[in-house]
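Possible regression after last week's pipeline update?

I re-ran a chain I had predicted before the update to compare outputs. Posting the input and the new output here so someone can diff against the archived version. Not blocking, just want to make sure nothing changed silently.
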Amino acid sequence: MHSFSRERIGPLCVLPRDTEIHFRSAAAIVLALPVQGRSKMTMPAKARDTRLDVLRAIALLMIFVDHVPGQPLENWTLRNFGFSDASEIFVLISGIAVALAYGRKYDMTNLTDLTRKAWRRAGTLFGAHLFATFATIAVFGVFALAATRPFLMRQIDMWPALSDPARGVFALVTLGHQIGYNNILPMYMVLMLMVPAIIWAERRSPVLLLAVSIALWAIAGTWRIGPPRMLEPGIWFFNPLSWQLIFVIGYVGMRHVSRGRKLGGNPVLFAVALAYLVFACVWIVDGLGARNDLTFGLPYVLTGSDKTFLTGWRLLHVLAMTYVFISLPAVSNLVRLPLANPLSVIGRHGLSIFVAGTLLSVAAQAAMMVAGNNVLFSLALIAAGVQVQIALAYVLDWRDARKPAVKRPGTPVGPSTVLISG
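New output (post-update):
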């Protein structure tokens, strides 16, 4: 029997830095984010639509909260009210962002240039992952030495690498071992390496691309295929062969919208999606997974609760959330915040804030292990961590504002548009 549990959320992926300019484009609205009242809500030319930034920031802050276990706020994040969590949302948004940054520039002659840019981004993600990994080990090491708590070095799956340093370092550098809370950037790096093939295939046949992506997801989940671990049995926690599907869905959906087509607004699909979200919420909140079976005798990849393989109930949940969101103008406009709002600023610096949030969360974990799990102390750590991330985001914004403006060819600017059915 497969049952859904309130599993701890893993870190989420972040968006390519060079996608940000594209959110000024008339086509750069996440899967046709709806806008109420065209005459009143249309943004002026050259205005940045902040909705993706805000959604990204909310997810980043939820990651940080979830990565400090044992404090009360972790019980109020997304994973406590449905089958999926912010990981799925971020990978979906990443596919959308890649469609804006790379897919819309492809003119059948410049795939080599786009390949170089995508693979350079993969290299940046690789460097960020290694920095976060070794910095996480260093954080626990400092607490272990200062407080004479050697057991700290056995936390979050560090010990397999530390017990045999030569083999461990090799495994960490080659991604054959990924410590806890540092395991999504490798998956995202693989997806960025796949981007040139995704761009090429989508331009020729979006339907065929989706069919191949679904087949790969089904094969990986059915036969449990994925990149292997080196120091322990099993495969990567975030299996790129499975998670590529939600990335491809985001990419194809955005390309569909950028061609002037519409998504969302069908009343029947909206009702089905909303009913599914209510069902998932009741199932998780009431703990029905401990007493009931949702497999119905179907293959595991369709009905399992495995995050590694992005099984069917999780996948349907994030797609249902997305459909409801793009079909409700009022909900969409709630996350349209001013450029200077802290959430907007955090969302503009996803990779840097993700890495900072990872290190702050593991530092909070180590501090709580040393000082004890006091509720007020844990909440103070959360509050301090959030404030540090906000401050860092504003510093990064200030730094970017001082840089000379770089003109990017082929980046149209204009008012936000409405692309929604019915």
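Follow-up from reviewer: compared with the archived run. The CA atoms of residues 198 and 209 lie 7 Å apart. Marking as no regression found.
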